[in-house]
């Protein structure tokens, strides 16, 4: 297998040019244009133009009957990793106050905030998570301001869901508070305070797809499914190695929860669950598994989260 | 940087010109010639374009919106791509 790559490609016609170049010049038979905003119209247009090329996009945008047949969507339920990271944060925090810097209040971000908070509250029921939305995926100045403001309020563990957690991690480390990472391993940016983090693990699914493509399987003929999903069990996500500040007790609690999420005995979204306005969002006796489509339309912050979606 | 950018643009422009004016065989030949400066195995590219499956090497393309070392979204995908390349050699 030969890998061709291009970085710093904006979500404009530039990405169509890159795709065309990889197909026509490099002879690519499959493309992974990874950014969310590449999908519509760029991937859709190129997929129609090149029906023999297989397109894979990270996210949940594939629509049966509407999206070209040679396109697949893949995504992971990384909120499982956030739940485990929340346990570590909850057992490490001394102030009982956690902070979450989010980009936008969309379902995937809300799932992460809520799972992180529920993980923390599963081990320390009085803990709170202050959330601040910056409004966009890459707002380094606002991310730094939010982190500083959290440190000023006595928050002692900060995590985030923005494209690059670099600024949040570095700012928190400078302020002497703990951090929990996102997307990738940021321990090098915060060697003292980095506890763990919710990381993607794309190697497994990418290697599996490469093998399927090698044996002639295709999305276009249905031999590779159009919708690929997974969590900790399927190896779509993982948690970062524990940092030096994590106690043996926290490690054990986190490892236990991780094992239960993998064997299916722990379900994160269980009733009775209330949002932070006191409204019941999941009634008693009901449990929503990760694959439940209801979770993909999440529009609430759970009890224990300070902040609002409208802000 | 400007040198790299120039090469990149010219690859695309040459491709466009060739596709518009010449037969496929010539395109493939020129295409291979152009890419040899930046990729070590231009012949693999040409082979990869003709068919999927079998024993021919496959070419898979990854595109990122930001730098591959952003400690974030893009790095996670780039690490996955590198892992895939390692697991699926040749």
What is the name of the CATH superfamily of the largest domain in chain A? Response regulator
Tell the overall outline of chain A: globular
Task: Provide the structure class of chain A.
Answer: alpha/beta
Q: Which two chains share the most extensive interface? A: A-B, 65 and 51 residues
Radius of gyration of chain A: 20 Å
Number of helices of chain B: 4
Q: How are the strands ordered across the major sheet of chain A?
A: 11-9-8-7-5-6-16
Alpha-carbon distance between the termini of chain A? 47 Å
C-alpha termini separation of chain B: 30 Å
Total domain units of chain A:
2
Name the features.
heterodimer; A: alpha/beta; Rossmann fold; seven-stranded mixed beta sheet; four-stranded parallel beta sheet; B: 90 residues; mainly alpha; 2 domains; 4 helices; 62% helix; disordered N terminus
List the helices and strands and how they pair.
The complex is a heterodimer of chains A (311) and B (90).
Chain A (H helix, E strand, L loop, with lengths): L1 E5 L6 H12 L5 E4 L5 H11 L4 E5 L12 E6 L2 H14 L4 E6 L4 H17 L4 E6 L6 H13 L4 E5 L4 H9 L3 E6 L10 E7 L1 H13 L12 E4 L6 E3 L8 H16 L5 E2 L2 E2 L5 E3 L4 E2 L16 E2 L5
Parallel strand pairs in A: 2-3, 3-4, 4-10, 5-6, 5-7, 6-16, 7-8, 8-9
Antiparallel strand pairs in A: 9-11, 12-15, 13-14
Helix pairs in contact in A: 1-2, 3-4, 3-8, 5-6
Chain B lengths: L1 H20 L2 H12 L6 H9 L8 E5 L9 H15 L3
Helix pairs in contact in B: 1-2, 2-3
Put the structure in a nutshell:
Chain A has 311 residues and is of the alpha/beta class. Chain A has helices at residues 13-24, 39-49, 79-92, 107-123, 140-152, 166-174, 202-214, 248-263, and strands at 2-6, 30-33, 54-58, 71-76, 97-102, 128-133, 157-161, 178-183, 194-200, 227-230, 237-239, 269-270, 273-274, 280-282, 287-288, 305-306.
């Amino acid at each position: 297998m030969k890998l061709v790559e291009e970085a710093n490609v904006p979500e404009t016609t530039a990405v169509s040019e890159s795709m065309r170049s990889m197909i026509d010049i490099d002879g690519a038979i499959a493309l992974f244009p990874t950014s969310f905003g590449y999908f519509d119209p760029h991937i859709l247009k190129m997929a129609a133009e090149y029906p023999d090329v297989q397109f894979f996009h990270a996210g949940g945008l594939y629509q049966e009957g509407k999206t070209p047949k040679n396109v697949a969507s893949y995504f992971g339920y990384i909120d499982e990793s956030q739940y485990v990271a929340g346990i570590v944060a909850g057992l490490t925090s001394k102030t009982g106050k956690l902070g979450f810097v989010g980009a936008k209040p969309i379902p995937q971000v809300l799932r992460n905030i809520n799972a992180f908070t529920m993980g923390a509250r599963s081990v320390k029921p009085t803990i709170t998570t202050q959330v601040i939305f910056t409004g966009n995926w890459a707002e380094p100045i606002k991310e730094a301001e939010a982190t500083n403001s959290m440190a000023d309020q006595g928050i002692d563990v900060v995590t985030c869901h923005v494209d690059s957690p670099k600024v949040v991690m570095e700012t928190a480390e400078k302020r002497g508070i703990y951090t929990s990472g996102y997307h990738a391993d940021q321990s090098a940016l915060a060697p003292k305070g980095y506890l763990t983090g919710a990381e993607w693990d794309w190697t497994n699914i990418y290697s599996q797809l490469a093998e399927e493509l090698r044996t002639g399987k295709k999305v276009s003929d249905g031999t590779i499914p159009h919708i690929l999903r997974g969590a900790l069990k399927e190896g779509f996500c993982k948690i970062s190695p524990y940092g030096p500040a994590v106690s043996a007790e926290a490690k054990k609690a986190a490892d236990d929860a991780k094992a239960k999420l993998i064997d299916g005995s722990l379900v994160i979204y269980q009733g009775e669950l209330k949002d932070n306005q006191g409204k019941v969002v999941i009634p008693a006796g009901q449990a929503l598994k990760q694959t439940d489509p209801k979770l993909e339309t999440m529009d609430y912050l759970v009890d224990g989260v300070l902040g609002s979606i409208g802000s | 940087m400007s040198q790299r950018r120039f090469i990149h643009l010219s690859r695309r422009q040459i491709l466009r010109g060739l596709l518009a004016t010449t037969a496929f065989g010539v395109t493939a030949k020129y295409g291979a010639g152009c890419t040899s400066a930046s990729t070590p195995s231009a012949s693999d590219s040409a082979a990869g374009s003709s068919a999927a499956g079998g024993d021919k090497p496959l070419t898979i393309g990854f595109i990122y919106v930001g730098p591959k070392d952003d400690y974030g979204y893009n790095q996670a995908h780039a690490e996955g791509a590198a892992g895939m390349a390692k697991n699926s050699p040749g």
